[in-house]
Amino acid sequence: MSLDILKQGAEGRLYLGEFKGESCLIKERFVKKYRHPELDTQITRQRMKAEAKAAGRCLAAGIRAPRILHSDLNQHKLYMEYFGQAKTAKQFIQETVASKGDLSESILMELCSRIGSTIGQMHSNNIIHGDLTTSNILINPKDTDYEVVFIDFGLSHYNQASEDKGVDLYVLERALLSTHSEQPYLFDAILKAYSKDSGKDQEAVMIKFEEVRARGRKRTMIG
């Protein structure tokens, strides 16, 4: 059966396909020729399993993520729920800034509040995403509203450590500074909402985040 390629990136291809009569997204991971074949297979399987487990944990905690319909470890393919009308948060932010003028900041502040709250819920359930960027967050329209969907959990893991949660936040901050540098208020809005919903470890996580941030700035200065 021929499949329609939706996107091709450094890690793999995304196809539009079908599983048991349901339209789905098929994520196929590339074989990395520069790695030893056995090591490549091991890493690929680990990341596929991590993605499926994290998505399942999110759904169990009431956090929107794609349902994993099937996992084919031999073919390196994950079959997952397809959000056909969704766009990435990156696209949403860029389009809002371009088209909404003076209203854009209030619209994006609401978006950031939802994103921060959801990341807080993830961390309170000890789910570490591992690659938080606005390209890995979908805005899925629902009637007159939308839902925030987190995707691409290949680098995720389950951990109670405040350090790992702080690193998760730092990765997102760096991604926002790189991709949305003209909207410096985005991360502060996310962090404010995060602090309300990240659970009893919030204070410890923020301390670790500041430590990680300081180390990152030091590395930047030293080069």
TrEMBL record:
Pfam families: Kdo. Its EC number is 2.7.11.1. One of its GO terms (biological process) is tRNA processing. It comes from the Eukaryota. InterPro entries: Bud32, Kinase-like_dom_sf, Prot_kinase_dom, Tyr_kinase_AS. Residues 1-223 form the Protein kinase domain. GO terms for cellular component: chromosome; cytosol; EKC/KEOPS complex; nucleus. The keyword RNA-binding does not apply. The keyword Metal-binding does not apply. Keywords: Activator, ATP-binding, Chromosome, Cytoplasm, Hydrolase, Kinase, Nucleotide-binding, Nucleus, Phosphoprotein, Serine/threonine-protein kinase, Transcription, Transcription regulation, Transferase, tRNA processing. It catalyses: L-threonyl-[protein] + ATP = O-phospho-L-threonyl-[protein] + ADP + H(+); L-seryl-[protein] + ATP = O-phospho-L-seryl-[protein] + ADP + H(+). It is an enzyme of class 2 (transferase). GO terms for molecular function: ATP binding; hydrolase activity; protein serine kinase activity; protein serine/threonine kinase activity. It is found in: Chromosome; Cytoplasm; Nucleus. Belongs to the protein kinase superfamily. BUD32 family. This is non-specific serine/threonine protein kinase. It comes from Drosophila willistoni (Fruit fly). The gene is Dwil\GK20053.
